[in-house]
Design brief:
The structure is a homodimer of 634-residue chains. Chain A has 634 residues and is of the alpha+beta class. Among the domains of chain A are: 199 residues, no CATH class; 101 residues, Sandwich (Immunoglobulin-like), CATH 2.60.40; 113 residues, no CATH class. In chain A, the strands form 3 sheets. In chain A, strands 3, 15, 16, 17, 18, 19, 20, 22, 23 and 24 form a 10-stranded antiparallel sheet that branches. Chain A has a 7-stranded antiparallel sheet with strand order 2-6-7-8-14-10-11. Chain A starts with a strand and ends with a strand. Chains A and B meet through helix 11, helix 14, strand 15 and strand 21 of A and helix 11, helix 14, strand 15 and strand 21 of B.
Chain lengths: 634, 634
């Protein structure tokens, strides 16, 4: 499986069209302005001096890099000379900021020039480098402009001289992974294998003894042992350097770092056809998706260290589930999919994308969640050390807002992959694509109101009649999919391989594929070992996870009970959250009167009839503060 | 209602006899040794010098004071010359440590002599003074020795010169309340009203503007605003100084501080017959017991600030519920009871004592819990910033261990109160008491295996036939109590006033009271606004709250479901937790097989039959690590 060239697919309508429009019109300008106001842009001018405000922070470069990456994707389909000019200007600052040896980092150039490469563990130096490389790749893909790409190639070449197993090289590894996956992308884009070698070095060096983070810590004169990540936990598990990566069998530590690493491992395994590395990835994938993943696809359940905790530990109100972590799982899924044609990966990818990722941005694209909790009480955060349950304009550590912007801007890249004679359809969206299959250009267009409606219509227009295969994912949430080609039903049992319907035929201009994925409301139950959710149920329709909000259901959401036999009706939500399908069911509400004002009662509880109204989880917290819950007492 | 003189009641057998024996044999020696090993005892010799280890900490004095208080109570009924000698020695150090002006504090005498009374908000200076006063009272009550009492009177007199509304006086208040209740006890013991006046000053001054903590902060040159207690919370609510005490209507802030204050207020209201202050106490009492109290009687649900959070917010696994806070609620309850003859107070007192207080000490009296969580997963604490779910030998901040020791040592003081002609029985225990009623000495003995068994037998032996009243609490957990006097049934409906059965008659030597409080297993439900517990049930038998432990039920306690119709059988627990009543019921366990190794399933859950074994909550964590839960899915 390889990617369809980025410029060849564009979103033309529907769900993701709206999201991308908001991304361009609201999110990208806001993020530019925030970067400007906070000093993140000016940092690149390298004129900061001690005593001045806005001292460049160690991770600022990555925030600007992700913004440029998002702009690169956006320009590919939506030319915008003004936006391009803004980005070109920043890119020129970046190019000018490069040091003669190739080094490129605002903090370590102007704030601590003598501390370059002295604390890879904590100070995000290689992480920033990775994000700049991804920006360079995207901006080149989107605009064809090489300035940033050339700059980052030079930086990567310099990094390759500094780190490695050779004499006089540092055997360093990043404390926050990212450069590994970025180097593989750089190699894919430039065709230069040397970047795979550097990626391979960073991946294989991880977890080796003597531990580099101990070596560099002692070199700094710091004799205190590493404690980050809480008591009784292997300290280096926090940044996945507790073991060589091939020996890691459970997803540990900071969730974003973890899945950026695993993404790097999976993409390297693909490029180098390294089956044992691919196997290590699969083990980690299975651990996450069968033991450590929220129903909304979020990961990293513990706020203490923003980390994975242990199997089946998925607290709701105290969830962390950082937006960036969900995004990193999307990256990991996508790269696993390119290793193995199995719809499991795309199923997880879709679920995470529609629920635990886009929950991180407000309807208007102007506010953000850092953590994506699964239940909320508006008073709780005050007393729990949690962040606010309200969406925020920006964060001091602003990784999430530009991360979600770049993902939305690049969503067309997630719809399809291809081989020489097969096109795989992973995600369903209204789009226009030109794909070369069996040496023939095939134009593929689609019309759909997915994920709100059940049907997707494709028109296949090869330049000439040609035999090739279209493989359509059959979503795991759908029991009775149907696919018609020119109104003729496909026997899906026959053509289903690992969750894809492989339709091989001679395609001709105007061939129609009509897909129906029935979307009855489904009840989802968590494994009984998830102690937080036993006795509770979540509600999905199609790929969309639903939740209850106080504004629709009143206070005390936990007092609502959804009887096992209750049937849902699909209605239309208030316009304030976009007139989308809303689910309504008869329910019961525990009657407080037997308590008679006391806290505890020995009377058998009674219920009053009530109505339960569920809205898409990703749209929660767009209508003011209030309680929210995904898991409902059954 | 007044107290029966401490020396006149002694525990002679049964539950509390065993607890007091363990307290004397294990807990008090261990605590002495810990105080010695950590430097808490030597601190009183005032020979610490900068650079030496064991720098006296600001709250150390209180730990030693509580140990002496416990020893004082213990010696009252259980003479022990060796123990008395140890305590006398420490008391002599204390007396010798008193400064010429009366001041008495190790930290501010040897570590920061120039900082005396400069940070009442944070540095526990008046708190330590209060605990020393309580120690002095108890040691005098227990031994008749006045050394410590004289020392503390002198200290109190000095404090009265420093603080007050007079010219040249500081209008200070303690950041950690305690001295208020201690001054009232000092007044009760010495008969000196001036200590009530000082208590009254400290209570009434609270929450006045300009806020003293701002005044003293600025005097220290500290310009940063007070932030303790988390964002968005009135900062001075942390130590109950956000409002004048009579205007406080909800229990706020650090739970131990709060209930020490309320105890001081209630006892001052009693001594000064201040009805409006009593009313303020009642409002706070109602807020706690109807909105903010755990089923085990613990309070202070938030670990962030060890504080009350908001109405109906009672997290289980993340509970704080400090042992000291439960003890402080016992104090508050006891003093409310002395204000108002209402069994509500004693009902809460009993529940808290048997569950959320004694859960804080191990069976052998050698280990302690600081926080008393209501559900535990042995892996969770690692990832949640929680303290260990295992009992600990000691704590750096060691308030809880000596607090529970002094409560257990003084438990005989909680059984009865009296007026000239009435004896109230609040708690049921095997004891021997001599009480003067209508100017006649009445010897009252009791035999019982309460709380494990349902009956209590009293023998009433007045020196001469005499008419007086015995008022027996009818516990709120008991539906069908019966009381026989000389085998004749009392009509309880007739004699019940506010939860006490008032039995007035001419008592003569050898009169027998036979009480039966039937103890069927009961299901307890939390108010539906407690979002953590909706759909769950707790189990009680008599006053004892039960829980499930992994060692009896296997892993995944949340997968167990107690059907509404299941009947409990009372069996006998393993000897390892004392062969006490253990509750066994047929139950269901959610069958994980439909999940087929996945995390989420849309199949309707199925159950397998299982057995549910519940043991007294206060005995949990005596058999190694494992899951525990009080609240069970129903």
């Amino acid at each position: 499986m390889k990617l369809v060239p980025f410029k060849n697919v564009s979103i033309t309508g529907g769900f993701w069209y709206e999201k991308q429009k908001i991304n361009r019109e609201n999110t990208l300008p806001i993020e530019y302005q925030q970067c400007k106001d906070t000093g993140r842009l000016d940092a690149w001018k390298l004129d900061w001096k001690p005593g001045m405000p806005n001292q460049p922070h160690v991770y600022w470069d990555s925030d600007v890099a992700k913004w440029i990456e998002a702009v690169g994707y956006s320009l590919a389909q939506n030319p915008d000379p003004e936006l391009e000019k803004l980005a070109d200007e920043v890119i020129q600052w970046m190019a000018d900021a490069q040091q003669p040896d190739g080094y490129l980092n605002t903090h370590f150039t102007v704030v601590e020039p003598d501390k370059r490469w002295t604390n890879l563990r904590d100070l995000h130096e290689l992480y920033c480098a990775g994000h700049l490389m991804e920006a360079a790749v995207a901006y080149y893909q989107g605009t064809g402009k090489r300035t940033l790409l050339d700059t980052l190639e030079k930086y990567a070449d310099y990094i390759a001289t500094v780190f490695g197993t050779g004499e006089n090289q540092k055997r360093g590894i990043p404390g926050h992974e990212e450069i590994e996956l970025a180097l593989v992308r750089l190699a894919e884009t430039t065709g230069k294998k040397k970047y795979l070698e550097l990626a391979s070095y960073f991946i294989e060096e991880r977890g080796r003894q003597p531990h580099y983070f101990d070596v560099e810590r002692k070199a700094r004169g710091d004799e205190s042992p590493y404690r980050l990540g809480g008591p009784d936990i292997l300290p280096y598990a926090y940044n996945q350097s507790h073991l060589p990566v091939r020996e890691q069998t459970t997803a540990e530590g900071h969730a974003v770092r973890a899945c950026y690493l695993y993404t790097g491992m999976a993409s390297l395994a693909r490029e180098t056809k390294d089956e044992s590395l691919a196997k290590a990835c699969k083990t980690l994938w299975n651990n996450i998706t069968t033991k450590r993943m929220y129903v909304h696809g979020g990961i990293g359940s513990s706020r203490f260290g923003e980390r994975f905790s242990f199997d089946y530990d998925l607290p709701n109100e105290d969830a962390y589930a950082e937006t960036c972590a969900a995004i990193s799982l999307v990256f990991f899924a996508r790269n696993m999919l390119r290793l193995e044609k199995n719809a499991d990966y795309a199923n997880v990818l879709e679920n995470t994308l529609y629920n635990g990722v886009i929950s991180g941005i407000s309807m208007d694209g102007k506010q953000f969640f850092y953590d994506n909790i699964l239940a909320s009480h508006p008073k709780y955060h005050k007393y729990s050390g949690q962040k606010s349950p309200q969406r925020q304009d920006w964060f001091g550590c602003a990784c999430c807002p530009p991360n979600i912007a770049r993902l939305i801007a690049s969503i067309s890249d997630y719809l399809y992959t291809q081989s020489d004679d097969t096109l795989w359809i992973h995600l369903f969206a209204e789009a226009n694509a030109n794909i070369t299959l069996n040496n023939t250009n095939v134009n593929l267009t689609s019309k759909t109101q997915y994920p709100w409606q059940e049907t997707i219509d494709y028109t296949v227009n090869p330049d000439a009649e040609k035999s090739f295969t279209i493989a359509i994912r059959l979503p795991d949430w759908c029991d009775n999919p149907s696919i018609l080609v020119n109104q003729e039903a496909i026997d899906l049992e026959k053509v289903n391989q690992n969750g894809y319907a492989y339709i091989t035929r001679t395609w001709k201009k105007g061939d129609k594929i009509h897909i129906t994925f029935p979307m009855p409301v489904k009840r989802v139950y968590a494994h009984p070992s998830v102690r937080q959710n036993c006795g509770k149920v979540a509600i999905k329709r199609g790929p969309i996870l639903y939740c209850l909000e106080e504004c629709d259901n009143g206070k005390d959401l936990a007092a609502l009970r959804l009887p096992p036999i209750a049937e849902f009706e699909v209605k239309t939500s208030p316009e304030s959250i976009g007139s989308v399908p809303m689910l309504v069911a008869p329910a019961l509400r525990r009657d407080p009167s037997p308590w008679n004002g006391k806290l505890y009662s020995t009377s058998t509880p009674k219920y009053k009839s009530a109505q339960l109204v569920a809205v898409p989880y990703f749209l929660w917290a767009n209508r003011g503060p209030g309680e929210m819950t995904i898991w409902i007492n059954e």
